[in-house]
Design a protein that fits this description.
The structure holds 2 protein chains of 2 kinds. By secondary structure, chain A is α/β, with parallel strands linked by helices. In chain A, 31% of the residues lie in helices and 19% in strands. Chain A has helices spanning 50-59, 94-109, 114-117, 132-147, 162-175, 192-200, 234-239, 268-281, 299-313, 326-329, 336-350; strands at 35-44, 47-48, 65-66, 79-80, 122-125, 154-156, 181-188, 225-233, 246-255, 288-292, 321-323, 369-370, 382-389, 393-401. In chain A, the strands form 2 sheets. In chain A, strands 1, 2, 5, 6, 7, 8, 9, 10, 11, 12, 13 and 14 form a 12-stranded mixed beta sheet that branches. In chain A, strands 3-4 form a two-stranded antiparallel ribbon. In chain A, a hairpin with a 3-residue loop joins β13 (382-389) and β14. Chain B has a 5-stranded mixed beta sheet, with helices on both faces. The longest helix of chain B has 16 residues, at 38-53. Chain B is globular, with a radius of gyration of 16 Å. The two termini of chain B are 26 Å apart. The chains are: A alpha/beta, B alpha/beta. Chains A and B meet through α4, β6, α5, α6 and β9 of A and β2, α2, α3, α4 and β3 of B.
Chain lengths: 402, 173
C-alpha cells in the first residue's frame, strides 16, 4: 500500500523530479503466445473458493470483524477481514498450508497433472520476515509432492505489488516461450506485528470501515488471503483441453520516483503502468470495461489513483465502472494483487461487477464511475486490475474475457 | 517445454560495502533505523549509480531490484516486538515494514521510473549478486519495461552486513 501521509517520516521527497519518460511502447504480444489463466484457487474472508469471493464482491458484503486472533485492545483500530471459522488455520505452518490449499484448488480446476507440472516454475509472494524462508520451503515441499513442480522458483517480497510482479513475470515467461505454464501463489495472514505498526503509522481506518474513493475515508484494513493462479500459454492449455477462465492480455509496471511511501500526486507511475499493459495488449483505453482499482481507502493514494485513471482514460472515465474490492476482502498486502486478480477473473466469468463498498459520498477529487451497489451485471471485453506499493511501485494487469 | 533463458545482461557499474576502501558502516539514512539494512542499501545503490551516471538524476527508465535472503532482520524483529506486551509500536516502523521503502528513497533521489521489485532468493553469498536476481533482471530487460536494472543484493548475518549493487542493461545486439 501507499501511505496516507498522516505521520510521514522525514525522508526527503524527490530531489529530482523525473522527466516522466513515456515507456517505449511494449510490443503487443503475439496471439499465439498470449497467456491465459486456467486455474484459480483462493481462501479469503469470504470463505473457500472463487465462487464465494465473487459472490461477496458482487454484493458488496464487507467481511470485517473484530480481530480475535491476537490482542488488539491497545490499538486504534480493531477490525480486519479474517478467514472465517469454516476455513480454520492449521496449527503448524498455517500460511504455507493455506497457500497449498489454494494451489490445490487452482491445480484441480486446471486439470493439472503432476507430469504436466514437472519443470513448472512456482512464483510465490510473501511478506519478508523471519518466517519467509520456512513458509517458502513448506510450500516447495507441497508443490513437489502433489504437483510435480521442482519447488518454489522465486519468492517475491515487494510489498503490495509482490504478487502482481510475479504475475507479470509469469506472463512474460509464457509469452516469450520460456515456459508453457507458471504457477503464481501468494499468502498473507493478519498477524500482530504488522497490525501493530500499521496501526501506529495511522494507516488503518479509524472507523473500522474501508471506504475506497469515498469522502470520509480514514485508511485501510488488513485481510487474510491465500491465492494461486495458473498462467499457461493458450496453445498449451488447448492441447490439454483446459478451458481458459480469462486471457492475460497485458501487464505493465512502473515506478513513481517520488517518495519512500507516498504516491506521486498525479498518479504518473500508475498511468505509465496502465499504458504499458494496454500497449502489450494492443488495445485502446476505450476497450476497457471495468477497473479493479488498488483503492486502499487512503486519502492520498486513492486521489492519485483516480487522477491516473482520468489521465489514461480521458472522457471514457465517465462510463468506466471502477471499484476497489478491498472494501470487501481487506488489504492482503503481498497477496493483495493476486486476490484482486482472482476477483477480476470472477467478475469476467460471472458477469457480476464487484462493488465498491463502504461508500459515504463523493470526494470531489476522485470523480470516478464507482460501482456503488450490486449485483450489477456487465460483460466487459477487458478488465484491468491495479496495485501500488511503498517505494512508488505500480502494476497493471489487463484481463480479457476468455 | 522450456527454452533457454534470455542472454545475460551487461554490467555497467558495480559497488559494494564493505570493501577494501570502505570498511566502516554506511552513513545514517534519515527516517530509517541505523540497525536495519536500509542505510547500507541506499549507500551502495548511490555509489553504483554515481559510478556510471555521475550525479543524479539517472536518464532513461531504470528498474530497482532488491535481493535479500536474510531480509532486514533487525527491522523485522523490531516489528514483531511491537506487538509484545509492554511495547509501544514506533510509527516509523510502519514506513519500514517492507523492503520497498528504501527503494522508494533511491528512486526519488535518482529519478528512477522503472519497475520496483524485491525478492528473497533461496541462497545468497553475502557480497555477491544471486543468480536468481540476475535472471529476474534479464527478464525485466527483455520484457521491455526498463532500459536498465539496478540490482542490490544485501544480507544481514553473524559476520556483519554486506551489500553489492550492479547496474545492468541488455546484452549487446
Amino acid at each position: 500500500m501507499t501511505a496516507t501521509g498522516t505521520s510521514a517520516p522525514t525522508h526527503r521527497p524527490a530531489t529530482h523530479r523525473p522527466a516522466a519518460p513515456r515507456p517505449a511502447a511494449p510490443r503487443p504480444v503475439a496471439p499465439a503466445a498470449r497467456p491465459v489463466i486456467t486455474g484459480v484457487g483462493v481462501l479469503s474472508a469470504a470463505g473457500r473458493g472463487l465462487a464465494a469471493l465473487t459472490e461477496a464482491a458482487a454484493h458488496g458484503k464487507a467481511a470485517f470483524t473484530e480481530v480475535a486472533r491476537f490482542d488488539v485492545s491497545g490499538r486504534r483500530t480493531t477490525q480486519a477481514a479474517l478467514l472465517p471459522g469454516t476455513v480454520p488455520l492449521a496449527s503448524t505452518f498455517p500460511l504455507a498450508r493455506a497457500v497449498l490449499e489454494a494451489i490445490g484448488q487452482a491445480g484441480r480446476q486446471a486439470g493439472l497433472t503432476a507430469a504436466e507440472g514437472a519443470g513448472m516454475p512456482v512464483l510465490l509472494a510473501l511478506h519478508s520476515d523471519e518466517r519467509t524462508r520456512a513458509t517458502a520451503d513448506a510450500v516447495a515441499a507441497g508443490v513437489r509432492a502433489h504437483w510435480g513442480a521442482p519447488g518454489v522458483t522465486r519468492v517475491y517480497t515487494g510489498a503490495c505489488v509482490a504478487a502482481a510482479t510475479a504475475v507479470a513475470d509469469a506472463a512474460a515467461l509464457v509469452a516469450a516461450g520460456r515456459h508453457e505454464r507458471v504457477l503464481v501463489a501468494a499468502g498473507h495472514l493478519v498477524e500482530p506485528g504488522v497490525f501493530a505498526v500499521f496501526d501506529a503509522g495511522r494507516a488503518l481506518a479509524r472507523d473500522g470501515e474501508l471506504r475506497p474513493f469515498s469522502t470520509g475515508r480514514t485508511g485501510t484494513l488488513l485481510g487474510d488471503a491465500a491465492v494461486a493462479v495458473l498462467v499457461e500459454s493458450a496453445p498449451a492449455a488447448e492441447r490439454r483441453s483446459a478451458p481458459a477462465l480469462a486471457r492475460l492480455a497485458g501487464w505493465g509496471r512502473a515506478g513513481d520516483a517520488h517518495h519512500v511511501c507516498r504516491p506521486e500526486p498525479d498518479g504518473a507511475g500508475v498511468a505509465r503502468a496502465i499504458e504499458a499493459a494496454l500497449g502489450r495488449a494492443g488495445i485502446a483505453p476505450e476497450q476497457v470495461g471495468y477497473v479493479n482499482a488498488n483503492g486502499t481507502g487512503s486519502d492520498l493514494a486513492d486521489r492519485a489513483e483516480a487522477t491516473a485513471l482520468r489521465t489514461v482514460f480521458g472522457p471514457h472515465t465517465e462510463q468506466l465502472p471502477v471499484s476497489s474490492s478491498k472494501s470487501v476482502h481487506g488489504h492482503a498486502l503481498e497477496a493483495s494483487a493476486l486476490l484482486e486478480l482472482a476477483v477480476t477473473v470472477g467478475a469476467l466469468e460471472s458477469g457480476l461487477t464487484p462493488v465498491n463498498a463502504g461508500w459515504l459520498g463523493p470526494d470531489p477529487d476522485v470523480r470516478l464511475d464507482l460501482v456503488l451497489d450490486g449485483p450489477h451485471t456487465a460483460r466487459p471485453d477487458y478488465a484491468l486490475t491495479l496495485n501500488s506499493a511503498f517505494g512508488g511501485a505500480n502494476t497493471a494487469l489487463l484481463l480479457a474475457a476468455a | 517445454m522450456t527454452t533457454p533463458a534470455t542472454a545475460a545482461p551487461r554490467v555497467l557499474a558495480e559497488a559494494r560495502r564493505p570493501g577494501p576502501d570502505l570498511p566502516g558502516p554506511p552513513p545514517p539514512l534519515p527516517g530509517f533505523t541505523p540497525a536495519g539494512l536500509a542505510p547500507l542499501i541506499a549507500d551502495t545503490a548511490d555509489r553504483c549509480l554515481r559510478a556510471h551516471h555521475g550525479p543524479p538524476p539517472a536518464p532513461g527508465r531504470t528498474a530497482l531490484l532488491l535481493a535479500s535472503a536474510s531480509g532486514d532482520l533487525a527491522t523485522a524483529r523490531a516489528i514483531d516486538r511491537s506487538a509484545e506486551p509492554g511495547h509501544r509500536p514506533a510509527p516509523l516502523l510502519f514506513f519500514q515494514s517492507n523492503p520497498n521503502a528504501v527503494l522508494g528513497h533511491i528512486a526519488a533521489r535518482w529519478g528512477l521510473t522503472g519497475p520496483v521489485a524485491a525478492i528473497s532468493p533461496a541462497e545468497a553469498v553475502p557480497g555477491t549478486v544471486p543468480v536468481d536476481a540476475y535472471e529476474l533482471a534479464a527478464l525485466l530487460l527483455a520484457d521491455g519495461d526498463a532500459d536498465h536494472v539496478l540490482v542490490i543484493a544485501a544480507e544481514q548475518g553473524p559476520d556483519g552486513d554486506h551489500a553489492v549493487a550492479a547496474l545492468l542493461t541488455g546484452p549487446v545486439g
